């Protein structure tokens, strides 16, 4: 069983839901990311989605666009992100790490080289925003051969045939994008999310994580009531933007946001 | 008819037979041109792209739709555009006879309107009340705002802040036409960032909005659809050559940013193996400086804006900033069909620098009394380069994709004159 599947199984047995923070690797400096990952685990992260910065993040709103720009200004490359995961793994063999990003940096590294190096570094899953299953070709088989889960997105616009196909194409979990829009957009409609997640569950056997629009303890709790995982990004990254000049405060306050969500979800 | 070419495929050169019939039949049902093209977008857009593909492919076979499109091209755009024998320029250069395909004479001043007419008709058929567009030089934005005004659709145009500065005239034209121009301040503040922002709008408003992409790039079906709408250029040019000269031309020359005017000219000639096809990219300050926008000439394959194609990217896969004197060519990618035409060897791609384009602008203006857009000036520059190496009975067709009125401020600025 993969580290991700094991994580969801353990949580399910304990009747808990996964809390999944997203941060952009290299935001705030290359040496900040690993300490921040550990701090997030300390305040309740079950899985970490680590963003690979890209110059043209088409699916992201302004908060994560700016985080990408900051990370790139620090010189963060995909190879550096893999090094960060390796360093994280030296102290944490339990928490799954999912790389999330756009296809071109992976395409440039080469799919085989990427799969080998990611597996060696201790990456557990990969989510490539602009690679729908139709364009994945032999990538799923390659990832599987290296023990990596390939996570795909589902959207409010996904039709039932696609939901079924995506459920079969990926592994680990599916990431349900809770609204039509970019990351960090408007509040999500929890009733609608509940209905959609219920529908997805009829067609997909993997755990369902929900992201986009979760910004506080209350929305995290509401989503946790219907999904297997709660994915939180822009609200954390926005706090990181505020505290770029104060590393100590950043390492306190960003994990503190996660703690408030954890407590609300577990209450 | 199969032809032998030296190809670059997946990183290695191989000699293959290219079946020109097969080449013309592309893209395949998944929107692929060889390894290029496709539909690399996030899940939210997949349903809209499937709907658009289905609608487009049905309507493109529908005689009623085609008749409506043709009627608009004739009575609203003013087609057919002339094929003009630039006798004085040809004589001056002392080689090939140069013919200009006068897309600059279209309504709104460039080839862009051929495509926006087609896509706006689709938007109407699908029932979307709002259209969005990205623009670089502003020609596609103006063409979109124009058809939106005519059909009574809401129109929002995304334009990089840097391009807004360079193309103030077109910005005002769009506003007069009733469009909202949204300045894009992210990234390099040029065309690629405007495209990112338009995609973000589309993903948010996908139910109400039709995205009119201005070039033959982006996710399937855009490269095919834009090519088909623009192919009127090549169909007319081919017919006009046969009528006016009695034979096909020896070579076609067109500028390539995203590549819509070039693919529109080239496509109807693909099976005519004797016709050379030459795309001219923006060489900026020179390929060696890195300050250019020539992905086919000096870039590498990758994935951006929904398709796999040649890109300007660094070793880590980050998209590089580009430079060109012409805002319409200032883009790090290119349409996927051009990528495949390059690899198969059916078309050649070269670059012309800012300076060469400026010289061509001045030469055509002074010798023929035709002021080309700075984009089209790149094609003229290459024609000026190769015409003297050809014989006087050879025919060179140059796509004059747009007129230079919008660029007068830029040219004056280079001359140190404030207007």
From TrEMBL, chain A:
Catalyses which reaction(s): (1S,2R)-1-C-(indol-3-yl)glycerol 3-phosphate + L-serine = D-glyceraldehyde 3-phosphate + L-tryptophan + H2O
EC number(s) reported in the record: 4.2.1.20
Gene3D superfamilies registered for this protein in UniProt: Aldolase class I
Active site: 49 (proton acceptor), 60 (proton acceptor)
Domain of life: Bacteria
SUPFAM superfamilies referenced in this protein's UniProt entry, alphabetically: Ribulose-phoshate binding barrel (SSF51366)
Entry's transmembrane regions: none
Annotated metabolic or biological route of this protein: Amino-acid biosynthesis; L-tryptophan biosynthesis; L-tryptophan from chorismate: step 5/5
Catalytic class of the enzyme: lyase
Family (UniProt): Belongs to the TrpA family.
Function: The alpha subunit is responsible for the aldol cleavage of indoleglycerol phosphate to indole and glyceraldehyde 3-phosphate.
Name of the featured protein: Tryptophan synthase alpha chain
Protein source organism: Pokkaliibacter plantistimulans
